[in-house]
Amino acid sequence: QSALTQPPSASGSPGQSVTISCTGTSSDVGIYNYVSWYQQHPGKAPKLLIYEVSKRPSGVPDRFSGSKSGNTASLTVSGLQAEDEADYYCSSYAGTYVFGTGTKVTVL
Amino acid sequence: EVQLVESGGGLIQPGGSLRLSCAASGFTVSSNYMSWVRQAPGKGLEWVSVIYSGSSTYYADSVKGRFTISRDNSKNTLYLQMNSLRGEDTAVYYCARVGAWYFFDYWGQGTLVTVSS
């Protein structure tokens, strides 16, 4: 199972929005609505942000939103804040599980 | 409160074996899907293995035949037995609960495994 493809980096100023793409295939992202997103700060464990493409666990701000079109899922962070600077990973169920390559978000 | 605490990491020589443990609290391991995910230094997340509540197990191709996932229901603990370790197995290993459906909703703090002579 090959890793899902994410851009290595993304950036935005405080208050702006940033969107991260996650491209898979018709065997994972394209066929299952089981895409999830994780935020990881340096030296910390990943934290669940989005599950089942667009659902937010309790406690996750509504600034974080997810969507999917075809083989590509997306995470949008609106109203960027300094604490949003972190690495972000997508994941998809595909019979087993596969993660994305990761995107480092920088708040300018 | 859900908590996952990994232990058992350390420095091991290539070809050696190591068993990681993940002690769970706040929920029952046997009633949930549980998984191991690893992260090599400076690299991204890599899924390693999953055990379903019915005891079915699955592995990434990179560890198949060398790693074994299991659980002890009486201790509410998840394990990862790692044999024939290689340098490329060097990573922080996280245990995670798999929520319904198919996402990792709780993570441990991770334990570092270093394979080196």
Structure in a nutshell:
The complex is a heterodimer of chains A (108) and B (117). Chain A has strands spanning 9-12, 18-23, 35-40, 47-50, 64-69, 72-77, 86-94, 96-99, 103-107. Chain A is mostly beta strands.
Category from helices, strands and their pairing of chain B: mainly beta
SSE topology string of chain A: EEEEEEEEE
CA-atom Rg of chain A in angstroms:
13 Å
Classification by helices and strands of chain A: mainly beta
The overall strand count of chain A is 9
Order of helices and strands of chain B: EEEEEEEEEEE
Mean pLDDT of chain A: 96
What do you see in this structure?
The complex is a heterodimer of chains A (108) and B (117). With 108 residues, chain A is mainly beta. Chain A has strands at 9-12, 18-23, 35-40, 47-50, 64-69, 72-77, 86-94, 96-99, 103-107. In chain A, a hairpin with a 2-residue loop joins β5 and β6 (72-77). Chain A starts with 8 loop residues before the first strand and ends with a strand. The mean pLDDT of chain A is 96. With 117 residues, chain B is an all-beta fold. Chain B has no helices and 11 strands. In chain B, the strands form 2 sheets. In chain B, strands 2, 4, 5, 6, 9, 10 and 11 form a 7-stranded mixed sheet that branches. A 4-stranded antiparallel sheet of chain B has the order 1-3-8-7, with no helix packed on it. In chain B, β7 (67-72) and β8 (77-82) form a beta hairpin. The termini of chain B are far apart. In chain B, 38% of the residues are buried. Classes of the chains: A mainly beta (108), B mainly beta (117). Chain A binds chain B through residues 1, 3, 32, 34, 36, 38, 40, 45-48, 51-52, 57, 89, 91, 93, 96-102, and chain B through 35, 37, 44-47, 50, 58, 60-61, 94, 99, 101-110.
